[in-house]
Specification:
By secondary structure, this protein is an alpha/beta fold. It is built from 7 helices and 8 strands; from the N terminus they run αααββββαβαβαβαβ. The chain has helices spanning 2-16, 20-30, 33-49, 84-93, 120-127, 142-157, 180-188; strands spanning 50-52, 59-61, 64-65, 74-81, 98-102, 133-136, 161-164, 191-192. Strands 5-4-6-7-8 form a 5-stranded mixed sheet. A 3-stranded antiparallel sheet has the order 1-2-3. The longest helix has 17 residues, at 33-49. It binds zinc ion. Residues 53, 55-56, 58, 65, 67-68 line the site of zinc ion.
Length: 193
């Protein structure tokens, strides 16, 4: 019996990305029958409400993308981030009025993640014909720097405007966790390249 339960915990851990301890706790909570029904109708609600924007890869709620469909956003600026959480963190801080582009990862030589595995060609489709400024807002980590440098080189070779967040974000800084003031300064004082 122990092994059987263990397998369910591991499966849940794999699906949710929770720690093993939290997966175990969640599984035990779900043993209550009402909770399973509640959760499954909640999951259905998520499934019916959210989808991925085919243009910027942000979350669409009821087919509306806050990043590219809101008329309050300046379509001539595209802030490039590695994941949805980073875009959401910047939107929630209310410090940037442009649109976003989610790369869905970062270049990672150890895990064989190449530029072609990211939403980079989709980014170039967006900037090809128009006078758009791309603002790179990737994490100040090794993978983030590698990806930033690759993008900057490619964008400059196409003679497009590109800038990146001002220094001031400590090395290792992760966009999602940077406080509002630091991020606000980093965007306002972004370096044109
Ligand atoms: Zn979008």
């Amino acid at each position: 019996l122990k092994t059987a339960i263990e397998n369910y915990i591991l499966e849940l851990k794999k699906i949710t990305n929770l720690t093993k301890r939290n997966s175990e706790k969640l599984l035990m909570d779900l043993m209550n029958e009402n909770k399973i029904d509640e959760l499954s109708s909640f999951l259905n609600k998520i499934k019916n409400s959210f989808s991925e924007c085919p243009t910027c890869f942000y979350l669409m709620e009821n087919n509306f993308c806050e990043s590219c469909m809101s008329d309050k956003r300046d379509k001539s600026k595209i802030c490039v981030v590695s994941n949805i959480l980073d875009a959401k963190a910047i939107i929630d801080k209310d410090i940037f009025n442009g649109t976003f582009h989610i790369l869905k990862g970062e270049i990672d030589l150890n895990k064989n993640v190449a530029p072609t595995d990211l939403k980079i060609s989709e980014l170039f489709d967006r900037i090809n014909n128009e006078n758009i400024e791309v603002i790179i807002a990737l994490n100040a980590t090794f993978k983030g720097e590698l990806t930033s440098n690759y993008l900057i080189q490619e964008i400059k070779s196409k003679n497009k405007k590109v800038s990146r967040l001002a220094r001031g974000i400590p090395f290792g800084g992760v966009v999602n966790y940077i406080d509002r003031e630091t991020m606000d300064n980093a965007i306002k004082n972004r370096n044109k390249l």
